[in-house]
Amino acid sequence: MKRNYEALLGAFYGKYFEFKNMKMSNDEALARTSNDFEGVLKLGEMENAVIHIAIGNIILSHTRTYYKVKDQLIEVLNSIDLEKLQLETSLDEYQDILERRDMVLDEIDNIQIDYDPYARWYSFEMEKEVKSYFGNIICEDESELVEKIIERFERDCDNTLSENIVVKTTLAELLIRHGIKSNEQIVKIRSELEQFDLNNVGKQLSEFEKLDLSIRIKEVLDKL
Known about the structure:
By secondary structure, the protein is an all-alpha fold. Helix content is about 70%, strand content about 5%. The chain is built from twelve helices and two strands; from the N terminus they run H-H-H-E-H-H-H-E-H-H-H-H-H-H. It has helices at about 5-20, 25-35, 45-60, 65-80, 80-90, 90-105, 125-135, 140-150, 155-160, 160-175, 185-195, 205-224; strands spanning about 65, 110-115. The chain has a two-stranded parallel ribbon. Helix 3 (about 45-60) packs parallel to helix 6 (about 90-105).
């Protein structure tokens, strides 16, 4: 009996978006999904091919990916056992799977490479997430507003230094824009930004992101 590869694709994508709905970064959601389907990979060549195609499609929707993940994906897709795959699928399924594989291989080189192994929010993604949450949150007072935002992004801030400093910088910008400057948390954020050293983030940020962040931090400190 032929196994349903389209259902497998749907299950993989569905699990990925479940993790995304849990406020995980793109990289972490993909890593968690891949781990959940690790056992499925061993069921057959069809499962191996389809899951790695799904991984590739998701990576293509991201802005960049860790270089080892990209290299491993290319290696796996190029080493699919075509004879086994033919035995496990119909002719139409076989051809469709190969077309999907070739599309991933053709486009994967266009993805920007990341050299830091930590699964994390990238700078502009983190900034966008903070702004979105800030715009949708409803609070009684300024203190509650700041506390809820800090609580929402506490896990991300603890994950990497780059996520922490982008969250704090973006939050400070938003508070200044809304005339909130006397909150106790603002004092803590100001102190953190003053002590921050861009050299400590290593490869978590690109050179462009470091430059952009340094300008933003300077502007924030000038206004506080």
